[in-house]
Amino acid sequence: MSGQIDQSRTLSRAERKQLLILACALDRTAWNDACRPAANRSPIGRIAGDLMGLIGPLSHLLPRRLGRWIRGAVFIANLGRQLGWLIR
């Protein structure tokens, strides 16, 4: 098997930690891909979704009240999509 792990070598604590970090990152990416809306959205819907994805992380760089308001709006929009209240 090509995916077989070499059992004769033990991993150090740092190596185990790096593997765990990598596994968590891959799991997070897979979860995001699974929750991503269907590909048959309109062009405007795709642009809006891309903007929401960009605005969320950038909102931490905005001034206090404006950043909090934008993060709240992104959260409510994502919640609405997950619950089926908003069109994907």
Write the layout of secondary structure elements.
Blueprint: H1 13-35, H2 43-58, H3 64-82
Helix pairs in contact: 2-3
Structural class estimated from helices and strands? mainly alpha
Distance between the ends: 41 Å
Please estimate the helix content. 55-70%
Number of strands: 0
* Annotation field: number of helices: 3
For the biggest sheet, the summary is: none
Strand content: under 5%
The low-confidence runs, each spanning 5 or more residues with pLDDT under 50, are none
Secondary-structure element sequence? HHH
**Alpha carbon gyration radius:** 19 Å
Shape: elongated
Mean pLDDT: 78
Number of domains: 2
Short précis:
This protein has three helices and no strands.
Structure write-up:
With 88 residues, the chain is mainly alpha-helical. The chain folds into two domains: 9-38; 40-88, no CATH class. Helices cover 66% and strands 0% of the residues. It contains three helices and no strands. The protein has helices at 13-35, 43-58, 64-82. Helix 2 (43-58) packs across helix 3. It is elongated. The N and C termini lie far apart (41 Å). The mean pLDDT is 78.
